[in-house]
Amino acid sequence: MTGKGQAMDKNKILVALSGGVDSSACAAMLRDQGYEVAGVVLRMSDAHDGAVADAQVSADQIGIPLHVWHMEEDFDREVAGYFARSYAAGRTPNPCVVCNPLVKFKGLMAAADAYGFPMVATGHYAGLRRDGDRVLLTAGENKARDQSYMLCRLTQKELGRLHFPLARLPKDEVRRIAEKAGLSCHDKPDSQEICFIPDGDYAGYIERRLGQTFPEGEYIAPDGSVCGHHRGIIHYTVGQRKKLGIALGKPVFIRRIDPAENRIYLAWGGDEYESQITVSDLSETFPGAFDAARTGEMRCSVKVRSRAAAAPCTVRMIGEGRVSVVFDAPERAPAAGQTAAFYDGDVVLGGGFID
C-alpha cells in the first residue's frame, strides 16, 4: 500500500521525530547519507503538544518537511486508559511496551503508507538483522541504553520496514552528530517521565482519569498482622522498598497489592526473590519463536524489567499465549503487569505480561 497512489521510492525514508536529540540526530544522519527524508511526529494527547513544537524546530533546522499524525483516540484507549486501570488493579504496567505495537508503530506505518515511504526510521537504541526472509530484532550494542525490551511486542509487520541508525552508537557520539548538524537539541536532557504525565504525578493522573479517589488502607506485615496504613494503592508498586512510611526494625518491601481488600502485603528484605512466574498474552517477533516451548521445554533468557539483566530460564507453554518461566537463579520482585521480554542470545523472541 503506497497511499495517494504513489509508487514507493526505496530512497525515501520517514523518520519519527519527537524533537529530542536521538530522533533528530537520526534524521540528520539519514539526510547526510543521501536519503530523501521527511519527519513525522505523533500527536497522542494534549501533553504531546510540546513534542510537536520541538519536532518542528528540529525539522526546520535539518531542512526536511514534517507531518503531524494524530493518534489521540488510539492512545487514549490503548495506553492512557490501560495505564490507569492497571494501577487501580494493583498491577505495574509499562505503557511504552503497550504503546509501541498498538499506537506508536501502528501510526508510523500508517503515515508511511499515506505519504509513500517504504521505510520508517526511529532513534531507538536497538538492532535489526536480516535472517533469510525474516528480520530479527536484537539488543542494541550500547548495552547501557539498549531499548530492545521496549520493542519486544513488535512483529514482522513492523520490523520488516524499520531502520535503527543509532544501533551501534554511544550517546555522546549521537550528541556530537546533532551538534555538528546545528541542532539546538544537541544538549537536551533525556526524558525520564512517562510522556503523558509530564509532572510525574501518577496518582493524581489516575484519580482524575478514573474519576475516583483511592483511600488509605492497611499494611500487612510479614507475620500477617496489621502494621500501619498506606496512602492508597495507586501510590505503590510491587518491589518498592522506599517511601513506605513505616518502620518495622529491618527492611521490608511490597510483595503484593490487593485492590479488593485495599491492603498492601509486605515481606522482609531478602525475601523478594521468585523462582518462577507465569506470563500471558505472549507476542512473537517472528513466527515460531516459541515453538520449542509448545512441544516441550525451551531454554532462553528473560528480562523482567527494562534495566534488569537477561536471566537464563526454562520456558514451557501452559496455554494459548501463556507460558511458565522457571529462572535458573531466583529473580528479584517480578511484578504483576510488568513486561517479560524473552531473548535467545541477543535476539528478541517476543514478550508478554507477568501474571
Task: Describe this structure as you would to a colleague.
The protein is an alpha/beta fold and 355 residues long. It is 26% helix and 31% strand. The chain is built from 8 helices and 17 strands. The strands form 4 sheets. A 6-stranded antiparallel barrel has the order 12-15-14-13-16-17. Strands 3-2-1-4-7 form a 5-stranded parallel beta sheet. It has a 4-stranded mixed beta sheet with strand order 9-8-11-10, with no helix packed on it. A hairpin with a 4-residue loop joins strand 10 and strand 11. Helix 1 packs across helix 6 and helix 3 packs antiparallel against helix 4. It starts with 11 loop residues before the first strand and ends with a strand. The N terminus is likely disordered.
- SSE pattern, N- to C-terminal: EHEHEHHEEEHEHHEEEEEHEEEEE
The largest pleated sheet is described as: 6 strands, antiparallel, barrel
* Low-pLDDT segments, ≥5 res: 1-7
Kindly estimate the percentage of residues that lie in beta strands according to DSSP.
Answer: 25-35%
Distance between the termini: 38 Å
Shape: globular
Query: What gyration radius follows from the Cα positions, in whole Å?
Result: 22 Å
Number of strands: 17
Count of DSSP helices?
8
- Determine the fraction of residues in helical runs and give it as a percent range: 25-40%
> Could you say which structural class the secondary elements and strand pairing correspond to?
alpha/beta
Q: Strands of the largest sheet, in order across it?
A: 12-15-14-13-16-17
